[in-house]
Design goal:
single chain, mainly alpha, 7 helices
C-alpha cells in the first residue's frame, strides 16, 4: 500500500489517518500538538539555546530542547544535534547541553544492552 504524503492542511491529514487506520482512530481522535518531519526537526535544532538551557533546564518554563520526539523516532540523531550546536558555540559554552546529550546516548546504550 502506498501511503499519501501530501495534504492540503492538518485536518485533511487527520481525516486520511482516520480513514486508513480506523483501529488507531478508535483510540482517540486528538492529534498531537507536535509537528513531525525532518524539516521541523531541523528548525527545532536551530532554535535550541544552549546557554539558556544550562541555566533553566530544570525549571517548569525552562529553555528545554523539545527534541525528544524527533530523537526517539530517529528523525535526527544525537550526533547531528551535537554538530549543529558546535557550529554555533564552543564546547565550553554548550557544555551542559552536550553533557546531557552524552547521558542520553549512554542510557540508550545501557538499555539496548541490558534492557
Amino acid at each position: 500500500m502506498q501511503l499519501k504524503t501530501t495534504f492540503a492542511d492538518r485536518e485533511s491529514l487527520a481525516d486520511y489517518i482516520r480513514e486508513e487506520f480506523p483501529r488507531a482512530a478508535q483510540r482517540g481522535a486528538a492529534l498531537s500538538e507536535i509537528r513531525g518531519g525532518r524539516g521541523i526537526a531541523e528548525t527545532v535544532i536551530q532554535n535550541i539555546q544552549p546557554i539558556a538551557y544550562a541555566a533553566t533546564r530544570n525549571m517548569l518554563s525552562g529553555a528545554v530542547t523539545q527534541l525528544s520526539p524527533y530523537l526517539k523516532q530517529g528523525v535526527v540523531t544525537l550526533a547531528e544535534v551535537r554538530r549543529s550546536i558546535l557550529k554555533r558555540l564552543s564546547a565550553q559554552k554548550a557544555y551542559k547541553l552536550l553533557q546531557e546529550l552524552a547521558w542520553r546516548d549512554y542510557y540508550q546504550r545501557v538499555y539496548a544492552r541490558i534492557g
